[in-house]
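Entry 0007
Protein: Aryl-alcohol dehydrogenase-like predicted oxidoreductase
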Amino acid sequence: MHYRILGTSGLRVSQLFLGAMTFRSPEEARRMLDLYREAGGNTIDTASAYGDSEQVLGELLRKHRDRFVLATKFTLPRDPADPNTGGSHRKNLTRTLERSLRRLRTDHVDLLWVHSWDEYTPIGETMRALDDAVRAGKILHAGASNTPAWVVAQANTLARHHGWTPFSALQVPYNPLRRDIERELLPMARSHGLSVATYNGLAAGVLSGRFTGPGAATSGRVDPASLTDHEHRAARTLQEAARELDATAAQVAIAWALARSPRIHPVIGASSARQLRDNLDATALALPLRTMERLNALADFAPGYPADQHPQTQAWFDGGHRVHPPVLERPFGN
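Output (structure tokens):
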């Protein structure tokens, strides 16, 4: 397992994050945590809205808390009857964070995510409240999940102007069937130096092939009857690639995400130790260029205006000369 720096901080985080949303059984969760630690993983992702996940983690990490980078989230409602238990305002941040710290049995979390965009709370209130939590030692870093690129960019500009803590990371869905984040979110992350945690790498199980071919499942996170011919073809393409590489569909999907950008950290949401062991082996899988091209083509992705116009316009600016960009990181969308 390799390590990378989280955003523009100095914090070292592993290539793969362990998603703890499925942590229910303490025994199975312990097996998964042990496997992840033995593989060199050090970053665990949970949320206040993930049922008993925080409590299970709190018990498991009692003797190993400092070994891990622990991340949780706030904003989703804790009590539907009370409108102030949801949102990214100061009251909900404060109350939810205190609850999470108690459940996790710790005095701080290393990374607190804004779980989803709350358009009714001024972003300045959220960033100031996050900074206050950093200054109080209750969180070390902040991240944004499921939030528009312009909001994150505005938030970090505002934070830097006031000397507050900016977002260090972004969490978004990403897989070969769903590449729309390449239009605005991933270029914004590159511009602001953000790490990118990606989830839903198998498109709710569609790309695993469990709904396609002989013995296909008849139920799951998606309605199998709603799947399109294109989605079934995509699942078959991923399975074919897996057979060619003597790998599994999950390993191929994870390896694809890792190969798309050095900023990306797939969140592994395994439901068992056996599944996690399989997922962890993806770090050793190198996808040939031909395989990457086949997978890139699955989404039938186009960046859209103005990104698709930019290369021609930039060439016009440069007068036809070959000009190298100041940053050599490969642009998204290729």
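Curator remark: The chain is about 35% helix and 15% strand. The mean pLDDT is 93.
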